[in-house]
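User: Could you walk me through two proteins back to back? I'd like the raw sequence and the structure tokens for each, with a short line separating them so I can tell where one ends and the next begins.

Assistant: Of course. Protein one, sequence then structure:
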Amino acid sequence: MSQFFSIHPDNPQARLVSQAVEILNKGGVIIYPTDSGYALGCHLGDKNAMERIQRIRRLDDKHNFTLVCRDLSEIGTYAKLGNSMFRFIKSHTPGAYTFILNATTEVPRRLMHPKRRTIGIRIPDNKIAMAIAETLGEPIMSTTLIMPDEEMPLTDPYDIRDLLEHAVDLVIDGGYCGMDPTTVLNLTDDEVVIVREGAGPTDTF
């Protein structure tokens, strides 16, 4: 049976955020809000927790997880960034974007694209997600909460709890946080290539 926390979207309660991080550090799987819907998350180094998420969503080994980072310096630890792309990311974060970047050796091989050694990274505009990442002190390994055979993500935390309370360790109610996916941008060749248009606007590129 999972725990269920109601965390204030504008003023996240530090006590509940710390408890969520403790669950992550003990190998737990959590469901938490971002600026583009709810996500499944776990500790970056926990292979068992990652495999639990794969089973929940029926993902194969080719699925690309995303690293939810707390700031730009953390992105630099896990991805190779030139000056122009650093400035571009800085001007578009926090926001509903996923950036595909060349991975550094800090990224576990199982998380990278098997052929291109790339990783998806983002800094969401959501205070709960950012509080968790900040307290955790490293990225949250994440993927959007879309159930098998469904096209749209789950948006109601009470429905999420009813459906997944025996499959995850924590469901965080952070209120309604949208359902549009992130805009995915490939920055691996020092230019901006739109892979998928989503919640993040592209008219300023």
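----
Protein two, same layout:
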Amino acid sequence: MALTITMGIQKGGCGKSTTTGILSYLLKEDGYRVLAIDMDSQGNLTELLSEQPSNEFIERSVLEALQQNDIKPYIVPISENLDLVPANNFLATLPRWIYTGKTYLGESIQYNGNPSLILDSALDQVRDKYDYIIIDTPPSLSEQTTNALCASEYVVVLFESSNWCYSALPNFMDSVDSANRFGNRDTKVVGILRTLNDARRSDAKAFNEMVAEDYPNHVFKTVITRKAPVGRLSLYGFNQNSELKQALELYRSFYKELIDRVEGK
């Protein structure tokens, strides 16, 4: 059965989509069967992995998979061992559908279950087909985020070294605790990844040290620094990218730490 890992923090610009895409890529390169799920209506993970505009997947996305409670028809093969359930901006209508039964297409599809367990239920249909399910989330607490958390055994918290991200950490840790109490997956934080670090700034160094002091049992040793090849990954993707080795360099260390933690090595 697949292990499910969500990437999250209740703040934007922390590298969630990039990290989700890179982790999915590294896992599949190691021979794991991976399903990446985009739960962010911005569709950045979708565009990173598919190399297509997210609007190409209108009516063929995770939103329809949840509304139909049938995820299999909405799985998009990306490469050997890597599949994607895409998202687009209509995913923002998920709460309206949950509470009114009205879809963005004007259809009526009533949902009467727990609104935080819709994704968890849908994933039960495919957990035995994959080794890992990796979920990207939006930069806010929402039905999309709570569904991702409640569907996951593990959560990687993304921390970008700034005051606003530092203040967002306790709230997100509380959200994970709530998923642990009300979900069925014994959801827990597997680690805090300090990312998008600017090594030239003393305040960034200070925030990274503060997080390590506040959460000594959670921080990964790896700190991801800002690098141009990582920033250009959304432009060049994973195929025929001459900078790919440089982009993945630091993430390989994080990847090894993560695997050690979730597989108990």
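The chain has one domain: 3-263.

Let me know if you want the two compared in more detail.
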